[in-house]
Amino acid sequence: MSTTVDLSMPTVPRVRRTPQEIADAAPVAGARRVLLAAPRGYCAGVDRAVIAVEKALEHYGAPVYVRKEIVHNKYVVSTLEERGAIFVDETDEVPEGSLLVFSAHGVSPAVVQSAVDRNLQTIDATCPLVTKVHREAVRFARGDFEILLIGHVGHEEVEGTFGEAPEHIQIVNSPEDVATLEVKNPDKVVWLSQTTLSVDETMETVNLLREKFPNLQDPPSDDICYATSNRQTAIKEIAPQTDLVIVVGSANSSNSVRLKEVAEEYGAKRAERVDFANQVDESWFEGVATVGVTSGASVPEVLVTQVLDLLAEYGYGEVEEVVTAEEDILFSLPKELRAKLAQDGDNSRQLGGRGARPKR
Known about the structure:
The chain has helices at residues 19-25, 44-60, 74-83, 109-117, 128-142, 156-162, 199-212, 226-238, 254-265, 301-313, 335-344; strands at residues 33-38, 64-67, 85-88, 99-102, 121-124, 146-150, 169-172, 189-193, 244-248, 271-274, 290-295, 319-323, 330-332, 351-353. By secondary structure, it is α/β, with parallel strands linked by helices. The strands form four sheets. The chain has a five-stranded parallel β-sheet, with helices on both faces. A four-stranded parallel β-sheet has the order 3-2-4-5. Strands 7-6-8 form a three-stranded parallel β-sheet, with helices on both faces.
C-alpha cells in the first residue's frame, strides 16, 4: 500500500510594507480614491446555482455531490465543501443512487444519460441563459444548419453545448480560427456563443465569420449573458480614469479573466486579478491615485468588501460607486428542488438573483 506524502511548502504569513513605506517609495499626486464598478459580482444564474446546493444540503443532508465546480469561484466551492458538498469531475465518481447537482455551466445529454444509468437523483442548476443556448443548438441542428460555436475549447459550458449536436457544431476558439473554417453549405450556417465571452472579441469573430460566410445567420437573441455584458460595460467606463484596476475573481472564471483584459484594453494603466484580498500586492499602489475595483459574476460581495478594506488601510478610503446599469433579473430555483421545498414546507427562498442592486 502506497502512502502519499505532502511535499508542498508551508504557508508563510505575509509581512506587508506599511502604507508609509509605499507612499515614500512613490508619492501620489492628488487624492487617493476607489472607483467601484456596478454592476459587479453575483449574477442571477450564479445566485440560483449556489442557493440550489445550499438548499439541497439543508433538505437532503450531506453529502450532496456536484459535477464540476458549481460556479467558478474558489471561495464559493470551499465554503460549500465545508458544509458537505462533494465536487466530482464525472458521474462515475458518484455512488449509485446518490444526489447529484449539475453545475451552472450546463451538461451534455451524454452526461444526463450517464446519471440516469447510475440511478442518480439529479438537480439541474444550469443557468437558464445557458439552457437557452442549448435549445438554440438543438433547434438549428434539427433544421440541418451548421453551427459555429464561438467559445473556449475545454470550458464546461462549451462542452455541454457542443454535446447537444456534435455532428453539426464546430467550435471557434478565437478570431484567428476563422481563416481555416470550412462548411458544407455556406447558405445554412448560424453562429452561437459561450455566454461569458468578451463582447468586443465575440463581435470581431462574428464580423470575420460574416465576411467569409455572407449568409451567416444570427441567434434569435444575444447569447452573451446580460451580466457579462453589464460588467464589461462598467469596467469600460472606469478603466480610462484608473491607475490600477483590481478584478476579484478566479483564474478559471472566464468572465473574470475577460474583465481584466477589458480593463487593459480600455485604458487602465495596470490591471490585476485576485481571488482574495491577501493576494493583492501592496507594491501595486506605488504612485497610484485611482484604483478601480470590480468582480466577476461568480464572486460573492464579501470578497470585494475585503479588498476595499485593504485599500482603505493604504489610504484609499474614498469610494465612489460608478453605476452603468441596474439589474433586477430573478430565476426560479430548479424544478426538482422546488418540488422538494414545497413538500417540506420551505418558502424561505424560491428565486435566485437580486431584485435590486445592493447599496453601498
